[in-house]
Amino acid sequence: MSDSPAARLQVLFEGHRLTPTQRRIAHCMVRRAADVPFLSSVELADLAGVSQPSVTRFAVALGFDGYPALRRHLRELAPAEAAGEASLNEYQQAVEAEIANLRHLAEVLADPAPVERAGRLLASSRPLPVLGLRAAASQAYGFSYFAAKVHPDVRLLDEGGTMLADRIDAAVRAGASALLCFALPRHPREVVDALAHARAAGLSVVTVADSAFAPVAAHSDLLLPAAVGTGLAFDTACAPMLLGRVLLEAMCDGLPDAQARLEEFDAGAAARGLFVE
Questions:
Q1: What residues have CB less than 8 Å from 190, skipping those under 6 apart?
Q2: pLDDT tens per residue, range 222-268
Q3: CA 120, CA 185: separation in Å to the nearest integer?
Q4: Which of 95-99, 108-112, 190-194 has the lowest mean pLDDT?
Q5: Rounded distance between C-alpha atoms, residue 48 and residue 51, angstroms
Q6: Among 107, 199, 207, 277, which residue's CB has the most CB atoms within a 10 Å radius?
Q7: SS3 content of the chain, % helix, strand, coil (to 5)
């Protein structure tokens, strides 16, 4: 199992049927994985925006006698990691945390079926809308940039506002069957609303999110988790970016003419002197 505190929490939560309130607590704990073993139930409740009894019920739902037992379990796992990181400065710790996130992603990808299914959904959607707002806008842009080289019609949705629903509707009218969303903290309410609108319009929603308990989970047909790093002032998203590239590979496998399109692009780029070699 991965050494990442967030990854360990994800494993702890897997297989439990959680209520929306409990999923909110789980998401908060994943986001604050390093701090959770040292938080009281009241502090965790404040962070998650729920009541203290909800935190107690959540711990019981995971199979513990109460929150103190859950916290004790998490504290037993924390010292080994703290000892290993004692000699590292904060920048090194952030890098090590991202390495742990990537290791966990590699473990998740040991079962390639969800990504392969996502690749087929994305490949068959014409056009393919790709949504990412605020912190996730760069992930959506990066995916769209490369996807456009092999997919005949990729539509980047990286700006919110009243036109967002209109652009989703336009994609549906043009024949879209799926939408890809990159959803990263902090999760804009507008993204949740857009996904609800997309599903109501008949689109299958594939989402890359920071955890399986993110607010977008309830509006996703297929959610692929990839943890973000939280050790610096701003989150780091190496794992979501890499998962996006893995999705590109899976989508190419579902596009019979993908290789021909890439070769055509390379030939055109060479003829135009597009890149400095």
A1: 133, 160, 164
A2: 999 999 988 788 989 999 999 999 999 999 999 999 999 999 999 99
A3: 27
A4: 95-99
A5: 9
A6: 207
A7: 60, 10, 30
